[in-house]
Amino acid sequence: MLDANFFTDADFENYRSLLYKESGINFTATNKPILVQRLRVRLQECNVPTAKAYFETISTNKEELKLFLDAITTNLTWFFRNQPHFDALEKFVLPELIKEKKLKGDFTVRIWSAGCSSGEEPYTIAMLLAEKLSLPWQFEIVASDLSLKCLMSAKEGFYEKPRISGVPDGYLKKYFDEVAGGYKIKEFLKSRIKFDYHNLKNASPWQNFDIIFCRNVLIYFDEAAQLEVVNHFWNSMHPKAFLYIGHSESLFGMKTQFEFVKTEWTTLYKKWK
Ligand SMILES: C[S@@+](CC[C@H](N)C(=O)[O-])C[C@H]1O[C@@H](n2cnc3c(N)ncnc32)[C@H](O)[C@@H]1O
């Protein structure tokens, strides 16, 4: 049972700064109700009566801190989210990369879906690349998130029927098995994706990506944290590579080395050294 005054203004300041330091996620007065609601659920699950007591726990217990970060993230996603991004991938980004990589005899396209949530984004990319690339071309996808719950569900690759509504019929037949209550991603596609835990506050453990998708993640960060994340991306990309961010996100006004690219379908960024 929670205390009536389980969350005070002082608690808000403590949580705000801890969350920012640990994840880059920036809670303001406007989105405070979301934090309070998600914290309330976690306190009830853990049977802790006040935010203050729970704060002491997460300040010293790294495992519980991870679970808390998981509990406060927004994980909304869907297959083929923002189709123009995938049109640009097929008609602009892949042809550009193929031209460049062929010159170097490198036939593997490496992609990172950063903030992959429950997997719809990396599976969408995998289906598209499986359709568009043929031998000697290959692809590898790394998909990461800080939500352990999301990563588990992404790795399982099971989606209830309403969640596959954006998947074209042909893709559904080719890349999913119909199972009780929904659809499951076929193993051959799943095996192309490596799912892993990664907090975007930290430098990337991976290198040499040709494309990074980090869509609808930066929106939760303030500008300083966004810049830090984007610099980590720069360092983990191949000298010729592309960066996708969400359609309502922008690097405008930020001191980054990325170049803005406007295509017929969408806008994106590139590193072109
Ligand atoms: C709204 S979802 C976006 C999913 C997908 N990229 C899309 O556009 O549909 C945002 C995801 O970013 C993840 N996220 C938020 N902060 C993060 C951080 N610091 N490190 C890694 N992932 C983070 C959340 O756990 C969540 O799954």
Quick recap:
The protein has 273 residues and is α/β, with parallel strands linked by helices. 43% of the residues lie in helices and 21% in strands.
H-E order? HHHHHEHEHEHEEHEEHEEE
From the alpha carbons, calculate the radius of gyration and give it in angstroms: 20 Å
What is the strand arrangement across the widest sheet? Answer: 6-2-1-7-8-10-9
Count the E strands. Answer: 10
- Total domains: 2
Sheet with most strands: 7 strands, mixed
Number of alpha- plus pi-helical segments: 10
Name the ligand types. S-adenosylmethionine
Shape: globular
| Straight-line distance between termini | 58 Å
CATH level-4 homologous superfamily of the largest domain: Vaccinia Virus protein VP39
**Named CATH architecture of the largest domain:** 3-Layer(aba) Sandwich
- What is the SS-derived class? alpha/beta
Average pLDDT taken over every residue: 96
Find the CATH topology of the largest domain: Rossmann fold
Text of the CATH class of the largest domain = Alpha Beta
What proportion of the residues form beta strands (DSSP E)? 15-25%
Q: What portion of residues is helical?
A: 40-55%
Contiguous uncertain segments of 5+ residues:
none
Describe this structure in words.
With 273 residues, the chain is of the alpha/beta class. The protein has 2 domains: 9-72, Chemotaxis receptor methyltransferase CheR, N-terminal domain (Chemotaxis Receptor Methyltransferase Cher, domain 1, Orthogonal Bundle), CATH 1.10.155; 83-272, Rossmann fold, CATH 3.40.50. The chain is built from 10 helices and 10 strands. The chain has helices at 9-23, 32-46, 51-60, 62-72, 83-103, 120-132, 148-156, 169-175, 187-190, 223-235, and strands at residues 108-114, 138-145, 158-160, 176-179, 182-185, 193-197, 209-214, 237-245, 259-262, 267-272. The chain has a 7-stranded mixed β-sheet with strand order 6-2-1-7-8-10-9. Helix 1 (9-23) runs parallel beside helix 3 (51-60) and helix 3 crosses helix 4 (62-72). The relative contact order is 0.13. The site of S-adenosylmethionine has 24 residues, from loops.
